[in-house]
Design goal:
about 230 residues; alpha/beta; seven-stranded mixed β-sheet
Length: about 230
């Protein structure tokens, strides 16, 4: 990266995402220059800013979950995106990902080899996200576009909120404490977890609890997936 290119990248990201994120992006590129094994596989795209980016490791989810996320994101017609990290995919998940690749501009892929460690792969995935917010899903769940909106709206309306999650509830409305979806600002995610990069909703919830970050709890009916598509564990 040339000096002029670095300055353009820095100020472009600063304008869209703030100083902290811009600094992290430039530091990441410098790290990649000094250690090519950790260089980004491709330049991030910041021209189109999405409201929210789902970050998903393909190998951690079943095809039904990947298809559900793709459908929910597509229903927003460009407001959302999903960044898939392909590191060690199964045949079934890999075939779904191959079908989605290039199908829509809001489906983005970060492909890495087995030689790249999980933390570096997660770092690349986060840095490719263009949304102001990042979201994570629990295994086995199939959210709809309305679920994403219900999760995102409180965060957009109240800057004091750090994170919001959809938690499974019983048929009577009692909380079961099982996290389904979790979202927070990308800048907060980078600031709190610059080395660990938790990539599932349960892992992120645990990390947020350890850091003392409050999470707004919203209900997610347990009977939806049991009566519908894929069951939640």
């Amino acid at each position: 990266m040339t000096l002029l290119g670095a300055l353009r990248r820095f100020f472009g990201v600063w304008e869209a995402y703030g100083l902290r994120v811009a600094s992290n992006v430039i530091l990441s590129k410098l790290r990649g220059t000094l250690n090519p094994a950790e260089a980004l596989p491709g330049p991030p795209v910041y021209a189109t800013r999405r409201r929210l980016s789902f970050l998903i490791r393909v190998e951690e989810h079943e095809p039904a979950t990947i298809n559900a996320i793709a459908a929910a994101v597509s229903a927003a017609e460009g407001a959302f995106e999903v960044v898939f990290c392909e590191r060690a995919v199964t045949d079934a998940s890999g075939s779904v990902a191959s079908r989605l690749r290039g199908a829509r501009p809001w489906f983005r892929f970060v492909g890495v080899t087995q030689e790249v460690d999980a933390r570096t792969a997660a770092s690349w995935t986060v840095e490719q996200a263009t949304g102001r917010y990042v979201a994570f899903i629990a295994r086995g769940c199939a959210p709809e576009s309305a679920d994403i909106e219900r999760l995102l709206t409180p965060l957009e309306e109240d800057d004091a909120l750090s994170a919001a999650g959809l938690f499974e509830t019983s048929e009577s409305g009692e909380p079961l404490r099982a996290i389904r979806l979790l979202a927070l600002r990308k800048s907060l995610y980078l600031a709190r977890f610059p080395l660990t990069f938790p990539m599932t909703a349960p892992a992120l919830l645990e990390a947020l609890a350890k850091s003392g970050t409050p999470v707004l709890e919203l209900p997610y009916p347990a009977n939806r997936e049991r009566a519908g598509r894929s069951p939640c564990p």
